[in-house]
Amino acid sequence: MAIQRIYAVYFSATGTTEKVVCSIANQIGAALKVSVQTINFTLPGARKEHHTFKKGDVVIFGTPVYAGRIPNILLPYIQGSFTGNDALAIPVVLYGNRNYDDALIELRNVLFENGFIPVAGAAFIGEHSFSKTLAANRPDAQDMAIAERFTAQIVEKIQNLIATPIEPVLVNGSDPIRPRYIPRDLQGNPVNILEVKPKTNDTCVKCGLCVEVCPMGSIDSADPSNVPRACIKCCACVKKCPTAAKYNDDEKFLEHRHVLEKGYARRAEPELFL
Questions:
Q1: pLDDT of residue 243
Q2: What residue ranges define each of the domains in the chain, with the CATH number in brackets?
């Protein structure tokens, strides 16, 4: 099958999804001698455009996993703003070491419904947004080596395609999609952390970086300690603050983080589907 364009398309608040998606896209582009274009819809201003693809395109499409699903704030945008027209797609999800649950099959299904043909898919692991120890520094060199081998398999599959597949690639997950994972406290009770927002300590120098990196545009540019709009707990502001001024101290949030760090400290491995 003749391939004309490669696209790396992603939401990546802390850079983990971007790292994997761009690596796969660039390696496919190099192998097929096709240029790679990037569509980064992490920031609010980037989520205003409709993107249309066509047969002969390959789209590596990545999102993080929130509560075992595509982030609910992104789902309507992905459903309404990307048209495939038989472009090939590789859905990729990044999760923080607990589980990706139904996120990959959900993304695959949405892309297929939008006219893409998913021919491969993968679930990789990235450092958890809540934590600096859960899947710390992942995706790491071992993950990226797996991504490189996966890319070689994708290229071989694409080169051997005689016609556009009719059905999407088989991936793990439940269909119909299950409800989202519910956060728990130390006693196993459900906790609601939807309204939790980061706080700011006195080391803040008002550099404005947190305002720039917030994917919801939720932080007040005049007063970075003020978060008047919704927070999705991506923790980009916490992890990227140069003076460690952003933090969370909500008791239930911290309990849930402890539950995750204690219960999912093992090394989860990427899962690949072709």
A1: 97
A2: 5-179+267-273 (3.40.50.360), 199-249 (3.30.70.20)
